Amino acid sequence: MVEREPVPITGTHAVSALGRGVDAQLHAVLRAAPAFRPVRRFDTTGRRVTVAATLPDVDTLTDELTDAVDVACRAAGLGRAERAEAALFLATHGGPSTLPGGGPPVPALAGRLADRCGLGEHTRVYTSACVSASTAVADAAALIRRGDRERVVVAAGYLVEPDQFALFDAGRALATDGAVRPFSAGRQGLLLGDGVAAVVLESPDSARRRDAPPVATLHGWGRAGDAYHPCQPDPAGRGLARAVGAALRRADLDAAAVGYVNANATGTVFSDAAEAAALRLALGDQAARVPVSSTKSVHGHALEASGLLELVVTVLALRHGKLPVNAGWLGPDEACPLDVVTGAPRPAGRYALSLNAAFGGANTALLVGAP
Amino acid sequence: MLAEAYWPEPGDGPPPPLPGFVHSPFAPLVAAVAGRCLRRRTPPPGSRCAVVLVSAAGDRPSADHVRATVDAGGRVGPLFFFQSVPNSVAGHVAARWGLDGPVVCLSPTGNPRADAVAEAELLLYDGDADAALLVLVEHAPDGAPTGAVAVLLGEGTSP
To answer: Is there a contact between A160 and A49 (Cβ–Cβ < 8 Å)?
Structure first.
């Protein structure tokens, strides 16, 4: 029989320029203190923009991912036997490593990570740009609900490196004023940021058998495409709206139940406006009332890892009962008629959406609830 | 399986250039094999068709060009920004053929076709797609794309 219960998240871990561990993420997003600084990790001479949100003394991506998976598994209380029964879904960039000591390229990286962490089941590697991690979470939940797997560890990692930095700079995607201002008037673009995260999802029966208290529960998820353009979002937001609608249907919730949206909003003029249109399409009048912010405004855009870092931050905010502030706010933009959280954190409701969108018109929505 | 296509098939040369994508055969190859498959059979009307692109090395020629340019202290061309991830050409195929299901790119950890089919079957089971276009890119040992297979799957068909 197919389980319809929400999928428990029993362990989380995250690292970003905000710090190491979930407490560091929570405290920093609630302070709304952006972590953007001049890049010291590699030479940015000749680039239009020279800042990003990088963590000092970062290890190799392989080692950071290993540590993230290990900490998340320990947080979930997984012993050797439970780890051996877990699948690993990894979200990361598909190209060759460009940082010194960066380790093997995918998919060998996934095998090494599984071996190091004692994860004995199936591995899958997602290279779907900025929806890689959120797609992996949705797929993991679907596999668990279908009964294929008791437990999936989703890991994701991006460390700011010279090649993607140069590409985003050449594409004029980076904010020349050194700030990310999602949905705000005067926004100029995105800034990159480190992100390494891991979460443990498992079946409700498995979590109950282990007496593992959920950190949060995944109630719904949705994935949909724009069929609009290779790299520009549909300005009407139709694909993202369908992803949100699918997440609500799976959760059996209506729009009024959504108490917060951690938006994809990168601080880019046209894509933030497209996301606002998607929210109006998916949530109707409720779109103007639900509190919205984008935590990319403090930790930056972690590309393939962004969906997992933002899911962890959203879960933390729900558990703590406070919603992150949208940093960098200068004032409203009529193209984004949303209730953006500015000034100070607000009280959290029970359910939240974490949204992501990527080149290719790929969109995802994850709907989480406090346990 | 609703349709299948290869590039190359007998008589094929290199895939035709794809406007907006430069330097590498990766994106032209994906677009050519996807188009050939979809001309043989289109997804059922009204169906949400996913695009699942499976490639071990991605667009390695472009990545190598970017690596060399950055290493030499140069500036990369802006078009490389868009083609630095496989999603972009998957999105081109989706837009060209009106495929509005999920867009998913994978790097295979086992048999590429098995990985692609497993992903497609999950999307169909889960209800976010009614059909799926799978595109599998083959690579030489140095990562250069050498050929591709496209498979169109629909509900109730077997791979």
So the answer is: no
Q: Which residues of A touch B98 (CB under 8 A)?
A: 227
Q: Do A163 and B63 touch (CB under 8 A)?
A: yes
Q: Say if CB A366 and CB A353 are below 8 A apart.
A: yes
Give tens-digit pLDDT for B114-159.
999 999 999 999 999 999 999 999 999 888 899 999 999 997 666 6
The answer to whether the CB of A65 falls within 8 A of the CB of A102 is: no
Q: Do A143 and B86 touch (CB under 8 A)?
A: no
The architecture of the domain spanning A8-181+187-209 is: 3-Layer(aba) Sandwich (3.40)
A-B interface: how many C-beta pairs under 8 angstroms?
183
Residue A168 forms contact with B (CB below 8 Å): yes
- Please give the pLDDT value at position A1: 37
Cα B11 from chain centroid?
A: 22
Domain ranges of chain A: 8-181+187-209, 219-369
The pLDDT of residue A3 is 46
- Hey, are the CB atoms on A362 and B87 less than 8 Å from each other? yes
The residues near A285 (Cβ < 8 Å, ≥ 6 apart) are: none
pLDDT for the residue B156: 66
pLDDT in tens, A215-225: 999 999 999 99
Q: Which of B105, B124, B125, B139 should we substitute to test contact with A (largest number of A Cβ atoms within 10 Å)?
A: B105
Domains of chain B: 3-13+22-40+47-154 (3.40.47.10)
Residue A255's pLDDT band (boundaries 50, 70, 90)? very high
Query: In 3-state terms, what secondary structure has residue B5?
Result: strand
Residues of A (236-275) whose Cβ lies below 8 Å from B: 238-239, 242, 246
A219-369 shares the fold of A8-181+187-209: yes
Backbone angles phi, psi at A243, to 5 degrees: -65, -45
Residue of chain B with shortest Cα separation from A110? B109
C-alpha A166: how far from chain center: 23
Q: Which CATH architecture has domain A219-369?
A: 3-Layer(aba) Sandwich (3.40)
At B67-112, the pLDDT tens digits run 999 999 999 999 999 999 999 999 999 999 999 999 999 999 999 9
Residue A60 sits at the chain B interface (C-beta within 8 Å): no
ipTM summary value: 0.97
Q: Does A48 touch chain B (CB under 8 A)?
A: no
